[in-house]
Amino acid sequence: MTSFVGILVETIVLGSIYGLVAIGMTLIYGTLRILDMSQGSMVMIGGFVGWGVLVVAGWSPVLAILIAFVITFAMGTFTELISVQPLMGRRGFDFEMVTFITTFAVAIVFANVALQVFGPFQHNVTPVVRGGVDVYNRVNLSYQNMTMALVSVGLMGGLGLFLARTRWGLAIRAVAQNLDAARLMGVPVMKLYPLTMGLASALAGIGGVFLGAKFFAYPSAGDLPLLEALIVVIFGGLGSLSGTLYAAYAIGLIQATAEVVVGTTWSLPILYAIILLVLVVRPHGLRGTPSEARL
Amino acid sequence: MSAGMPILEVRDLWAGYGATMVVRGLGLTVETGETVVIIGPNGHGKTTLLRTVTGLIRPKRGEVLLEGERVDGKTPEHLAGLGMVHVPQGDQLFPDMTVEENLVMGAFLPAPWKDRHRSLERVYHLIPALRERSGQRARTLSGGERRLVGLGRGLMREARILMIDEPSLGLAPVAIETVYGAIREIHDTGTTILLVEENFTHIGDVADVVHVVEMGSIVRSGPLEELSKDRTVVETYLGSL
User: Fold this and answer.
1) CA B60, CA A119: separation in Å to the nearest integer?
2) Is residue B232 scored above 60 in pLDDT?
3) Residue that terminates a domain, selected from B119, B137, B158
4) How far apart are CA B117 and CA B112, in angstroms?
5) Are B125 and B239 members of one domain?
6) B219 Cβ neighbours under 8 A, 6+ residues apart
7) Domain check: are B112 and B64 in the same one?
8) Where along chain A do its domains lie?
9) Pairwise CB contact (< 8 Å): A185 & B113
């Protein structure tokens, strides 16, 4: 039981942070109909921003989050403008497939620039928030982990409110649900697309600060989170925000349970066998609609 | 703008899909405060005409002028900003938004956004059925209710010209009565309207000028009374007047 609670706590923390990255991918897929492979780079960039602000400059974690937000927002907007926007409205090719590659190309460029600038080393980020609390029989939850999980969940809630209540949030959903109608309402889609990708990238960037603090900042730090986010997004149902959330925690829970019941060696094979099974039965994922999911 | 300039002028417009031209050399003018109705069989270019005027389709040839200013080839979002309102055919709604969110999106542009609460009240007053459904997702509505939401959404901002595509298509008679009741009220407020329908049946009280479209261009024009005396027109578009 103790080990189960321990693993559960860990997966909730990690699931929340990965959820930030995944929900950004869902936002982008729902709106632009592309799988943005540059989201992993935003995690990596966020990690380096966190390291730079916290370790090199010695500033506060709040500042690290804010600076990561601004920088990755700009990088995401830039990525959209160079790798997606030029392909829009053109015919005769598979838009989803080509942008999959162009965003991936951007990610490779970012990773190699980071490699040249920072080297292949793992940059350690010392914990900022000290202490912790025993949640159950010597299972410790550090305040730092707790803070990161809460901020992640708060940001996802904030995104939900933004989409439900604000003018531009509604516009993003409108574009996702009916592009022609949204344009007839006067929504400037060619500005909205880069802003949406900027927003999603900023969430991934903040996720990157957290992951960097939990592990390290290094040039390929975005690879695993990107893969995890892809799995979460497809398992949850492409384009479905609620599905993405369910999937992020369901995957964590399945993995935690498997680790306790059959041990670490078999937990991943079991997790992916279950994902395979679910997707074969429901190809559109947990919450995606059969034709196309919408925000 | 000089007085008497038509709100909308379409000159020798050609548009379609790929190499197939559906609108073929069509021309028309809409004067301020007028309700102009375009009648014609399915597949003869009525919807394509509206989609081209509002920028969803780029014309191959010809001009579209909004109070004398060339606007053909502009994007739909740009034209929306110039005061064109298009209520598209069928249920072109935001399916996973509530009725109220759909309506509010009609006021997306900066100036109408400030007035959205008042506009919402006005639309609910004009089409009371929408108030009852305000929290319901558009996806779950009946065809008639969806059409009403589409119309209500088009009324959430002031239109220099309001274009409505086949408001009666596929609706039950009672629903058609509601839709046209609302259109009549909008007409009476002096809004300029360009309306498309398949036949004469419902347009009696609203049409100032009627154009008959065949094969993508206008073949007959005139006030409704005049056209209704024209035997060939009446025989083709058997609407009971």
Assistant:
1) 55
2) yes
3) B158
4) 10
5) no
6) B212, B213
7) no
8) 15-220
9) no
Cβ-contact A114, A52 below 8 angstroms: no
Query: ipTM score here?
Result: 0.93
pTM: 0.92
How would residue B241 be classed by pLDDT, with cut points 50, 70 and 90?
A: very low
Please indicate whether, in this complex, the C-beta atoms of A177 and B105 are within 8 angstroms of each other.
Answer: no
The verdict on B70 and B188 lying in the same domain is yes
Domain boundary among B158, B184, B199: B158
Min Cα–Cα distance to chain A from B109, Å: 6
Q: Which two tokens stand for residue A217?
A: 């900042």
What would the pLDDT profile of B157-199 be if each residue is shown by its tens digit?
999 999 999 988 878 888 888 889 889 989 999 999 999 998 7
pLDDT of residue B140: 93
- Closest chain B CA to residue A240: B96
Together in a domain, B181 and B236 = yes
Mutate to test the interface with A, among B53, B105, B149 (most CBs of A within 10 A): B105
Is the dihedral angle over the CA atoms B120, B122, B126, B129 positive or is it negative? Answer: positive
Domain CATH code at residue B34? 3.40.50.300
Which is nearest to B174 in space by CA: B197, B133, B198, B143?
Answer: B143
Q: Are residues B77 and B178 in the same domain?
A: yes
Question: According to the 3-state scheme, what is the secondary structure of chain A?
Answer: CHHHHHHHHHHHHHHHHHHHHHHHHHHHHHHHCCCCCCHHHHHHHHHHHHHHHHHHCCCCHHHHHHHHHHHHHHHHHHHHHHHCHHHCCCCCCCHHHHHHHHHHHHHHHHHHHHHHHHCCCCEECCCCCCCEEEEECCEEEEHHHHHHHHHHHHHHHHHHHHHHHCHHHHHHHHHHHCHHHHHHCCCCHHHHHHHHHHHHHHHHHHHHHHHHHHCEECCCCCHHHHHHHHHHHHHHCCCCHHHHHHHHHHHHHHHHHHHHHHCHHHHHHHHHHHHHHHHHHCCCCCCCCCCCCCC
> Which residues on B lie below 8 Å from A178 (Cβ)?
92-95
- Per this entry, what is the length of chain A? 295
On whether both B9 and B46 belong to a single domain, the answer is: yes
Range of the domain at B38: 1-83+159-241
Do residues B100 and B175 share a domain?
no
Pairing of strands B69-70, A139-142: unpaired
Nearest to B94 among A167, A177, A183 (CB): A177
- Same domain? For B168 and B200 the reply is yes
Contacts of B105 in chain A (CB under 8 A): 170-171, 174, 182, 185
Q: Residue A172 corresponds to which amino acid?
A: I
Which tokens go with B201?
A: 């049946």
- Hey, of A184, A192, A193, A287, which one would you mutate to test binding to chain B, going by the most B CBs within 10 A of its CB? A184
Quote the number of domains for chain B.
2
Quick one: which of B3, B132, B6 has its CA closest to B64?
B6
Burial class for A151, CB neighbours closer than 10 Å (0-12, 13-18, 19+): buried
The CA-to-CA distance between both ends of chain B, in Å, stands at 38
